[in-house]
Give the backbone structure.
Amino acid sequence: MIKMEGRLLNLGTVDSCGRKFAEDCKITFPNKVPVHWNFDRLYDPRPVIGDANIVRDDKGLVCEVNLTTDLLTEDEYYVGGYYTNVKRHDENSICVIDACALRSMSIVLAPADKSLKIRKEENNV
């Protein structure tokens, strides 16, 4: 098992898709979510490559990831969240997300926010 940690979501910043999670965004999430590769087959449990513990802090969401595959050998990966029940409004051509529910996360190749990364834990290198 590979253990990684990092940031899954930044509040109050606009991503490359023109979206922003409001600083007071109401986000619901379970303690643990499945981790997928590049959002593949979100409704099919077979491609799940791990799980992640999610915690909210003053900047957004952080995660501790347990990967169950040995195929990912890099020390760092970009990540993104899969959200449902999204409540939003537009503000100066920016989609502002006011509320949502995190359902899963993915390791991604083309991130909407390049600051959202997970890294191998120090004692796991």
Remarks:
- The chain has a mean pLDDT of 91.
- The CA atoms of residues 5 and 55 lie 11 Å apart.
